[in-house]
Design a protein that fits this description.
about 250 residues; alpha/beta; Elongation Factor Tu (Ef-tu), domain 3; Rossmann fold; 2 domains; 6-stranded parallel beta sheet; binds flavin-adenine dinucleotide; cytochrome-b5 reductase activity, acting on NADH; flavoprotein; mitochondrion outer membrane; mitochondrion; Cbr1-like_FAD-bd_dom
Length: about 250
C-alpha cells in the first residue's frame, strides 16, 4: 500500500498519551491511512481555537509504522495548541497533514536538501546536529534509522537543554551511542550548576571541542528554539561549514 501524499489531510486517533518529562508527553496516533513518514519528515496537526481561528502546528515522529506513529510534544501552558493536546482524552480524533520538510534523509548517506524544489541527492560522510529541547525529534529519527540500517554516516549530536530533567529520549540516545560506533552524543546544560558535563550555551569553542573539523563531506544541521537557531546558524558560519540546514 502506498503512503499518503504531502499536504493531503487525514484523520488520526489518539491511542497513547504518556508523560515522559515534567512538561512533555509521548503521544501515539493511529491514522486512517498509511502515512509511512521517512526519517526527519513531519506532519501537521490542524485545529481551530475557540474563535474558529486555524491553529496548525508541526510535529516530527520518532516512530512511524504505516498507520501508527509516536511523537514527543512539549506542552506550553500559554501556547495555542499544546494545552489543548494536553487535555485530549484517548480515542480523540484529530485532523492532520503530511508535510514536506527542508531536509530528507534517503538512507545510505544520501540527503536531499529542500526536497520541495530539488530532487537531486547529495552524499555526506559526516552529519553534525545541534538540537535544543524538542528540536531533538528530527535528529533522533535520522540517528535511529542510521543506527538500525548501519549506514556509514558519522553522526555528532550536540544536545542543549536547561537541566537534565529536560533531556528528551536520553536512554534511547545512550543506547544508540553504545550500539552504534558512528554516533557521538554530547549534552550541554545551561541551568544545572554542578553538572559534570558541558555547561552554558552553545558557543564556537563548544563546537571546536565536540565536533570534528568540517570539510566538504560534512553537513551541519540544527533545530531548536528561535533564539538558539539564530545563534547556531551564525556559529556554523564561523565554523566554516559549507552545507548547513535547519530542520
Ligand atoms: C518542522 C517542525 C517540527 C516540530 N516538531 C516538534 C516535535 O516533534 N515536538 C514538539 O513538541 N514540537 C515540535 N515543533 C514545535 C511545534 O510545531 C509548536 O511550535 C509547539 O508545539 C508550540 O505550539 P503551541 O501552539 O502550543 O504554542 P504557541 O502558541 O506557538 O507558543 C509557543 C510559545 O511561545 C509563547 N508565545 C506565543 N505567543 C507569544 C507572544 N506573542 N509573545 C511571547 N511569547 C509568546 C507561548 O507562551 C509559548 O510559550 C516543531 C516545529 C517545526 C517547525
Amino acid at each position: 500500500m502506498s503512503s499518503i501524499d504531502y499536504d493531503k489531510t487525514f484523520d488520526a486517533t489518539l491511542v497513547k498519551k504518556d508523560q515522559i518529562t515534567h512538561d512533555t508527553y509521548l503521544f501515539g496516533f493511529q491514522s486512517e491511512v498509511d502515512i509511512q513518514l521517512e526519517p526527519a519528515e513531519h506532519f501537521q496537526i490542524l485545529m481551530k481555537d475557540s474563535d474558529g481561528i486555524d491553529i496548525n502546528r508541526n510535529y516530527t515522529p520518532i516512530l512511524s509504522q504505516q498507520r501508527y506513529f509516536e511523537v514527543p510534544i512539549k506542552i506550553y501552558p500559554l501556547g495555542s495548541l499544546t494545552p489543548i493536546l494536553a487535555k485530549l482524552s484517548i480515542n480523540s480524533k484529530l485532523q492532520m497533514q503530511r508535510k514536506i520538510g527542508k531536509l530528507a534523509y534517503m538512507g545510505a548517506n544520501k540527503f536531499i536538501i529542500a526536497p520541495k524544489i530539488n530532487k537531486q541527492f547529495q552524499v555526506f560522510k559526516t552529519m553534525l546536529m545541534i538540537c535544543g529541547g524538542t528540536g531533538i525529534t528530527p535528529a533522533f529519527s535520522i540517528i535511529k534509522h542510521v543506527c538500525q540500517k548501519k549506514d556509514p554516516l558519522h553522526m555528532h549530536l550536540l544536545y542543549a537543554n536547561k537541566t537534565s530533567q529536560d533531556i528528551l529520549l536520553k536512554d534511547q540516545l545512550t543506547k544508540f551511542q553504545n550500539e552504534c560506533p558512528n554516533l557521538k552524543v554530547t549534552h550541554i546544560l545551561d541551568k544545572e550548576p554542578g553538572y559534570k558535563g558541558l555547561q552554558g550555551y552553545v558557543t564556537l569553542d563548544v563546537l571546536k571541542q565536540v565536533f570534528p573539523s568540517p570539510n566538504n563531506d560534512t553537513i551541519g544541521t540544527f533545530c531548536g528554539p528561535t533564539a538558539m537557531n539564530k545563534v547556531v546558524a551564525e556559529l556554523y558560519k564561523n565554523y566554516n561549514i559549507q552545507t548547513v540546514v535547519k530542520f
